[in-house]
Design a protein that fits this description.
Elements lengths: L14 H33 L4 H4 L2 H30 L6 E8 L2 E6 L6 E4 L21 E4 L4 E7 L4 E5 L4 E5 L5 E5 L5 E7 L11 E7 L1 H12 L1
Length: about 230
């Protein structure tokens, strides 16, 4: 959960999000090095007198042609690696279906015979003490931790987007089309998200709550709900 005046990302709770945060820090260090070099050269040109050596220098031209290419490679290789990791889905332990409506989410556990429910935002008047306003729902999406989860995302009416920042997940929900994503939670906890596609008047009021729990708790919860 994000804190007030927080500048960075939320705490990563999946391997993909850990890789994304690490790549973000890597790209910032590259940008900092480029800005420092440019500021140093600007200061040097303002303080030093220009000479013919700086006007016609093939070595300098060679360096400032090759150096940007090296920088782009340093950014492209880890970026492509994360991109392929995000698209890879390998034998999930659990498959879920998230359906976006105006303005709530429906969830179906496809591996169970009859386990589905709607998830509405809790109004402020019904909000328990200590819970987050505009983020808490009546039915949370409960999943087993440290298990590969596949989520099939679609919509019933207009465009939506199923997004949970701390899990590194953001998938568009398009009517008549199935998109899929996957993630693994590395720790137990409650992770909050929201619809990230402007979908109408109540777009801001269809939150997503994912509860990661041990396998024993998930089994008891699912058997209780499906009975």
């Amino acid at each position: 959960m994000a804190n007030q005046s927080q500048f960075g990302f939320q705490d990563a709770s999946s391997p993909i999000m850990e890789e994304l945060v690490e790549f973000h820090d890597h790209a910032l260090m590259v940008a900092l090095a480029i800005c420092s070099l440019v500021l140093y050269l600007l200061a040097l040109m303002l303080m030093e007198k220009l000479s013919s050596n700086t006007v016609d220098a093939q070595e300098v031209e060679l360096v400032w042609t090759i150096l940007p290419a090296i920088v782009l490679i340093m950014l492209a290789l880890p970026s492509l690696q994360i991109l392929y990791m995000m698209d890879e889905i390998d034998e999930p332990d659990l498959t879920l279906k998230a359906i976006g409506h105006q303005w709530y989410w429906s969830y179906e556990y496809t591996d169970f015979k009859d386990l589905s429910f709607d998830s509405y935002m809790l109004p402020t008047t019904d909000l328990p003490l200590g819970h987050f306003r505009l983020l808490e729902v009546d039915n949370r999406l409960v999943i087993p931790m440290e298990s590969p989860i596949r989520v099939i995302v679609t919509a019933d009416d207009v465009l939506h987007s199923w997004a949970v920042p701390s899990l590194g997940v953001k998938t568009d929900a398009i009517p008549g089309r199935l998109n899929q994503t996957s993630f693994i939670t590395t720790r137990p906890g409650i992770f909050y998200g929201q619809c990230s596609e402007i979908c109408g008047a109540n777009h801001s009021f269809m939150p997503i709550v994912v509860e990661s729990a041990p396998l024993t708790y998930f089994e008891s919860w699912s058997s209780l709900l499906s009975s």
